[in-house]
Task: inverse folding
């Protein structure tokens, strides 16, 4: 196991690797042109935030549950073998969030200056706003896709659910919007 209880500050690339669990209860701050990479054979969890000048990569064999804010100056990639749960994310580049065999939960606002892709084997649940300057793709393969707040993109929006697609806020796409599900509920869609 790897545990971060205080704050890690680095001006270079920072790697945290754990054969089992990585606990991020402190913060990780990477400046200059540094990247941050956190990998765990089982779980990545914690309440600490990440502030990274360049790319941020999180990879766990089982679950990722990080409730602290994530800010990255380039791309964010988070891949969990099972469930993925993140707090607020602010990404200058592309955001790729994957819960391969489980659910993806975004507890805070998810903002991306590039493309946003959220993929889950079961459910996708966005509790805050979901905003992307590039294309926005969200896929709840066998479950429900629920967005509590506004969903917007300056590109194309492709929203898919194996069962129910529920958009409780305004949905705006500057280009095309493709909504696919067994049942679709919206509160307003503007294309």
Result:
């Amino acid at each position: 196991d790897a545990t971060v209880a205080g704050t890690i500050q680095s001006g270079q690339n920072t790697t945290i690797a754990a054969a089992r669990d990585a606990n991020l209860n402190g913060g990780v701050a990477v400046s200059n042109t540094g990247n941050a990479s956190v990998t765990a054979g089982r779980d990545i969890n914690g309440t600490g935030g990440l502030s990274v000048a360049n790319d941020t990569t999180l990879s766990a064999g089982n679950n990722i549950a990080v409730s602290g804010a994530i800010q990255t100056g380039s791309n964010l990639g988070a891949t969990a073998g099972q469930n993925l749960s993140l707090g607020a994310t602010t990404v200058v580049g592309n955001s790729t969030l994957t819960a391969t065999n489980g659910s993806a939960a975004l507890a805070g606002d998810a903002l991306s200056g590039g493309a946003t892709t959220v993929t889950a084997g079961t459910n996708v649940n966005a509790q805050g706003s979901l905003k992307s300057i590039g294309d926005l793709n969200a896929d709840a393969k066998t479950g429900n896709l629920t967005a509590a707040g506004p969903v917007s993109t300056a590109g194309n929006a492709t929203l898919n659910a194996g069962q129910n697609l529920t958009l409780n806020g305004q949905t705006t796409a500057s280009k095309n919007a493709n909504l696919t599900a067994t049942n679709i509920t919206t509160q307003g869609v503007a294309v």
